[in-house]
Specification:
Layout (H helix, E strand, L loop, with lengths): L2 E5 L2 E3 L5 E8 L8 E6 L6 E6 L6 E3 L7 E6 L4 E6 L8 E7 L18 E2 L3 E5 L2
Parallel strand pairs: 2-11
Antiparallel strand pairs: 1-3, 3-8, 4-5, 4-9, 5-6, 7-8, 9-10, 9-11
């Protein structure tokens, strides 16, 4: 009944852009920091970005700084991740996840264990 659903993935050329969506069903995202993670083939899950609930402050890992933008639209019960200037190394499955720790602020560094609601992921492939 409680579900997060990612969408917007696909194939892009190097230097291109994609916009990922994370939408909640069965609960509201408003109280929770929402993070994006990704997992590339043969690599460990890594944090990408996070947006807080209390003040909408944002956090970016070095991999996406200056290229990625996270945002929240409460009316749509959604969080978005804009991916610009894509590189082949960005190829991965991207997941959104909610932190129910209670503070409303992103906990960093981003850890899988701090997030309890997860989507099924959306594939991003960057190649020419």
């Amino acid at each position: 009944q409680v579900q997060l659903v990612e969408s917007g993935g696909g194939k892009a050329q190097p230097g291109g852009s994609l916009r990922l969506s994370c939408t909640a069903f069965g609960f509201t995202l408003d109280p929770y920091p929402i993070a994006w993670f990704r997992q590339a083939p043969g690599k460990e899950l890594e944090g990408v970005s996070c947006i807080s609930s209390r003040d909408d402050s944002t956090y970016y890992e070095d991999s996406g700084k200056g290229r990625f933008t996270i945002s929240r639209d409460s009316a749509k019960n959604s969080v978005f991740l804009q991916l610009n200037s894509l590189k082949p190394d960005d190829t991965a499955i991207y997941y959104c996840a909610a932190d129910r720790g209670g503070s409303g602020i992103c906990r960093v560094p981003l850890l899988e264990s701090d997030h309890s609601y997860w989507g099924q992921g959306t594939q991003v492939t960057v190649s020419s």
